[in-house]
Amino acid sequence: MVLLLSRKDIESFLTIQDTIDVVEEAFKEYERGTVKMPLRSVIAVEKHGGSVLYMPALLQGMGALGVKVVSVYAKNHTEYNLPTTIGVVLLNDPKNGSPIAIMDGSFLTAMRTGAVSGVATKYLARKNAKELGIIGTGVQGRMQVAAVCKVRPIEKVKAYDIAPDQCSRFCEQISKDLGVQSIQAHTSEEAVRNSDIVITSSSSKEPVLKSEWLDEGTHINAIGSHTPNAREIDATTIKRAKIIVDTREAALKEAGDIMTPIAQGIITPEHIFAELGEIVTGKKQGRVNDDEITLFKSQGLAIQDVSTAWRIYELATKKGIGKSITL
């Protein structure tokens, strides 16, 4: 039997804390060497301005095996009234390869991307960080703020988006859901200035964050760009910051935020201080003082999707949620 889980099913029980916990464990597994994860395959669909990504992984300690298929089409919202990102996850039983679950991957993607920023913030931001600035207020932005609020005592959120009405609704929702002060910034600079933590969650191909706006000791989660020709962070910030990535391989092949400064001769690949797995297992120390600028560059890994999907499957099975079918 295969368990089918809709977005509505998953939203009814999956919490951001559940997701932070399982994603942190996935990165520990990755660092221990108990993961098999080929670099994701990407098929560009130039005619329609989109791409489809295939992301498989096996986490042997967790016993989680699966693949996420996710599409990213920038024009979906305006042309088809569909989300920009649409995903589905298939889980297999690692003992015999049979499919055990098929589930919505769109909400899962938002949750696991927020969760990995939560994990990075837990290890890299100052313990007393209270003010958060965010650039980009889509669905992913909400998950980012929720995750950061779980690991730091955030009291104030400053949000900026090129769509003012969306940003206003975002601020209202954040205040309602998380009980923190949330105000609409009029510029990216206003969102960043005096913030202890900064999140870039935009779809921009050009930098939206400048080094001169940053205070010493700021932590940055850069999660919006994920292709070689797009970046959200200016080169001066990259040079100035202690850089942590999900994996070096992905960062050096896919992250324009890292690849462009390397191509320009501003940094070398050795400027990457650590992978997140090295930080969470204690092999390398993240923040060592309150003056460091730390930056986590997230590309998104299949271990995040498959581990989260496995946790969803476990919880849904216990709660009796979903529909079982025979293929």
In short:
The chain is of the alpha/beta class and 327 residues long. It has helices at 7-11, 16-32, 76-80, 106-124, 139-151, 164-178, 188-192, 235-240, 248-254, 256-263, 276-280, 302-319, and strands at 2-5, 35-36, 41-45, 50-59, 64-73, 85-92, 99-104, 131-135, 156-160, 181-184, 197-200, 219-222, 242-245, 272-275, 294-297, 323-325. It has two domains: 2-109 and 303-325, ornithine cyclodeaminase, domain 1 (2-Layer Sandwich), CATH 3.30.1780; 119-300, 3-Layer(aba) Sandwich (Rossmann fold), CATH 3.40.50.
Structural features:
eight-stranded parallel sheet; Rossmann fold; alpha/beta; ornithine cyclodeaminase, domain 1; 327 residues; globular
Spell out the blueprint of helices and strands:
Layout: E1 2-5, H1 7-11, H2 16-32, E2 35-36, E3 41-45, E4 50-59, E5 64-73, H3 76-80, E6 85-92, E7 99-104, H4 106-124, E8 131-135, H5 139-151, E9 156-160, H6 164-178, E10 181-184, H7 188-192, E11 197-200, E12 219-222, H8 235-240, E13 242-245, H9 248-254, H10 256-263, E14 272-275, H11 276-280, E15 294-297, H12 302-319, E16 323-325
Parallel strand pairs: 1-7, 8-9, 8-11, 9-10, 11-12, 12-15, 13-14, 13-15
Antiparallel strand pairs: 1-16, 2-4, 3-4, 4-5, 5-6, 6-7
Helix pairs in contact: 2-4, 2-12, 4-5, 4-12
